[in-house]
Structure formats: C-alpha cells, structure tokens
Amino acid sequence: MALSAASALFAQKDTATVQHVKFDEVVVTGTRGASTMRSIPFTVSVVDRVKLTESQRQNILPTLSEQVPGLFVTQRAMMGFGVSGGAAGGISVRGLSAGAGQALVLIDGHPQYQGVFGHSISDSYQTMMAENVEVVRGPASVLYGSNAMGGVINIVTRGMRRDGVKTDINVGAGSYGTVQTEVSNQVKSGRFSSTVAAQYGRSDNHRPNMGFEQYGGYLKLAYDINRHWNAFADADITHFNASYPGTEAKPMLEADQWITRGVATLGVENRYANTNGRISVYDNFGIHKINDGYNVGAKPQTELFRSKDALAGISWYQTVNNLIEGNSITVGVDYQHIYGRAYYTSRETGEVVTAGKRGMQSGHHHSNEIAGYVDIRQDIASWLTLDAGLRVDNHSVAGTEWIPQFGAVVRPDDTSEFKAMVSKGFRNPTMKDMYLYAVANHDSLRAERLWNYEIAWKQRVLHETLSYGVNLFIANGDNIIQAVAGRNINTGKIENRGAEVEATWRASRHWSFNTNHSVLHMKYHIIGAPEYKGYIGANARYGKLNIAAGIQQLSGLFTEVGANEHKENVTLLNAAVNYYVCPALKLWVKGENLLAQKYEINAGYPMPRATFMAGVNVSF
Fold this sequence. Notes:
This protein is mostly beta strands. It contains four helices and 36 strands. The N terminus is likely disordered.
C-alpha cells in the first residue's frame, strides 16, 4: 500500500494532525463498485491526493512510477513527454507496455487511449483532476476489456463532499525556464457540487529544440437527484506543443507536435442498501498535427502528418449484494465505437496529399466493440472469499474473445490476507495495426492474449503501524502483433515473471516511511521496463514544516534491445519541502535528481542533471 495511505495534511493550526493508516481502504477499480481491499483478489495500489500533490508535479505519472511497484514511466526532459519519434511517457506494468496498448489508463472507469494508435497520451493525465489513483497490477480485462492486459491505472476524479467553497492557486518556476501554474475551485451547495480547474506549464528543457508548452482545463458537475440517484457530467481537455530534438548524435530541426486531447462524460448513478450501479456515455477524442522534422544538413519536410480519432462508448453496470448471504454479483455491458483517420497535408497549401503515400491506407476507418460481463464474489466463510468472472467481447474486425478470471482471498485473522488469482487479459488490434503503413493487415489479425498467475500476502503488525505485502506472478502471452516480412501478424510471445514487495510504517506522529521493490524477468525484453526498481521514501512533519524525500534505484533498465542491447543503472534522489506560513499560504521548493546522475531512459536522450523549482500555494 502506498505511503499516501499514511500521509497527513497540516491542520489549520500550526500543529500537525496525524492521519491514521487506512488498512481497510475502500477501492472501486477492482470491482466497479466500492469494496474493501480485504475482500477482492486483485492487487491494487492506491495513491491519494496528498501524495500526488506533495511533490508539486502537474502530471500524476512520475509519482506513480515511484509509489507503485512494477510500474515504470519513461521520461526525457524536465517537463513534457510528447508523442511520435523520441517520445517518452511510456507506461509499463510488469513488463507490459501501455505504448503497445497492453496497459490501460482509465478516468473514472472509462478507457482513455488514442483511437488511431491505440495507446495512452501521457501528457493528458494531470494532477489537477485527480482525487486519487488506483492501480491494478495484473490483468483486469473482465471488467475493463481490451488493453487491460498488464494492468489498469484508474484516475478517480475530484469532488466536493461538504457544503462550502474552496479555491486553490499554485504557481511555481525553476530550472530551464520552467513555469507551472494551476488554479482550482470547488463548490458544494446542497445537492449541487462542482469542480473547475485549469493549468498552464512550459519549459525550455535542457537541450536546444526541446521546448514544451501545455494548457489544460477540467470541469465536473454533479447533482443529487435524491438520496439514491446522482447525475454527473465532466469534461477534460489539454493541448500541448512539443519539440523533438533528436538524439545527441543526430539532432533534428523543426520536429514539432501540436496535440489536443479531450474527454467528455455524462452519467447517472444509483445507490441503495443492497445494490448500486451506473450508466454513462463518454467520448475520448484527439486532433494531432506533427512535423517529422529533419536532420541537420537535410531538407525540411514539405508535409505534415495529421490524425483525428475518437473513442466513444456507453458503459452500464449494476452490482447486487446479498441475494444470498455474503454474495455480490456485478453485471455489465460495454459498447465502443472507435474512429480514426490519418493523412498528410501540404505545409504550403494545407491540402490533403496522402493518396496512398508511404504505404498508408487513406480514408476513414471505424471499428465497433460490444461486450457483456459478470463477476461473482461469494463469502464461503468469514475467512474465505471466492471470485469468478467472465467477459464475452466481440470486435467488428478481430471477432469474439472469451475472458475468464478466478480468484480467492483467505483471511487468517483481522490483520492479514492471502490472495490467489488466475486471470486472462487481451488487446484487440488497433487502427494502426490494421490500416496504417506498409505492414497493415485487417484481414487476419486477432486479439493479443495473456494469462496471469499470481499469489499475494499482506499483513499489518506492530499495532497496525506497519503494513507489508509480497506478490509473486507469472505472465505468459501469445498472439502478440508484430511486423514480419513487411506484414503485421499474430506471432509474438510474452514470458514474464517477477516479485513485488511494498511496506509502509507510521513510526510516530512526525515520521512515516514507505518502500517498494520489484524484480522482473522478461524472456523477451522490451524498452522502458527495468529488471529491478526500488524506492524508499520518508515524510517528516514538524509544526508548519513538511519534508518529503525519496530515493529510487533503477537497475537493468533497457534503453535498447536486440543486437545493440543496452541497460542503464541509476540512483535518483528527489525531495520537496512545504512550509505553511499560515492556513491560507504555503511556500514550497523541490529538487529532482539531486545526486546529479548522468543517465538515459530513452536511448540518445540524456536526462537533465539536478533541477530545482520553487513556488507558492494560496488556499481560501
């Protein structure tokens, strides 16, 4: 469990307030409805808003990379991940990559990935929208469908729970001309509540032609129709301009990207004594313009790559409890319409110039996916819960896939649990796999498949001030889509196994610690997945002062695979200091890579040495 479960905010007075560790923490991602950790067979890590914000990062992913064992996110600069060639923001969970569509990002349970290329856009996941983040390590395809092969990152959005008005303004600046600003306002009045947030960030970063600039906004409205029914609507949009400098050996010019991503959701929820559920409609869309650039001495591009996509869907589920004693049944239906168009336009005239160019199959492409699922949990005894789930998923091109899962939770006493899980994950072919470039193949591609076998032990000791957990897993996949002899086919394999350890310790009212470690063995290596990742963090709280520091070790981080295989080993030290001048004013300063390590995560893209930022937060 992440240290966030034990973190404390400073009270409105000068003295600190201790927040007790939430060992019976309620999560939603493993079950669609609220359930305690002790009743579900999934391995779920929770990172709350305290932890997400204490290091003053505008994006959630670097914090998740520290706090969640088995999860790693690639970076290339102080701010911004970018897209296309040389991009960072690749998310891997237990050696399965979101860049390959094998790990799924959700916002409030709705899938978020680019319709054309089928992967997440990491610059979209802003801290301003997140109340907490729940990470399922291991397949969650029964509930969430395609792309949830390796795991799920679910961003649970913010909401106001008590009547009142709250406004936060955060402004900071630091190394390489980096500036970040964020403002949010939350209101609750009777049955109505709202959250509005906006952010702006920019940085020159540490190399020429590597500038990044981003604008973003978030809106959430909710209304309690009565004590059982609630209606909500939210929208999030982000636009960023990013420049790609090329590798140090082959620098590039004019490699620029203009990306807009957005999502809108409308839904109704119900909650009764023995049943709860939700029906929602959502649209995840994007507009992308990319100049592929040119190497020094070569000629500039005469065309721009353009793409538009949308992932629209309807999601319904209902959970019924205690039809028989100790029973919980969730049933649901998901429908998705995936649209994508990719083309080139002339830089001079703006006219479309695709016309079969570069092996791209021009035109508008669509696919549809419909699925039904059921998940059943049954308490056999006070100490034993069994779980079984099944999803039937039909894709308009790839056909039908059956996805089962089986799990058990054994609770020997009130402070420990043993979990076992067997689950299948899958990924349907994307628009890129089926229709783009010379390797395109829409005639015979089928879903990628993976089986995961996992056992876990978790226990609380020392009067429940110390919590630790251990996980062992084996993941075997086949049908992985790869280009062979100029054509995409289902031929690749995945054979991963590993171990994960995590612990938190509330040592006193002033000190708390957390640590997590993961070891990964991959028969078939991928870039951006370390063989070992370890993190040790500490929080000190004295009066108005809060200090959070952590040291991370990466070993066997693949930056190149194949004939030129290369691994990086690096030790990274980060720290943030927050000082509460008064209840309404906080000053902060942070430093990253304080040991000034020289290393690369993306081959040819050295990371910055030590960087610093300082700022102020006003709340009223």
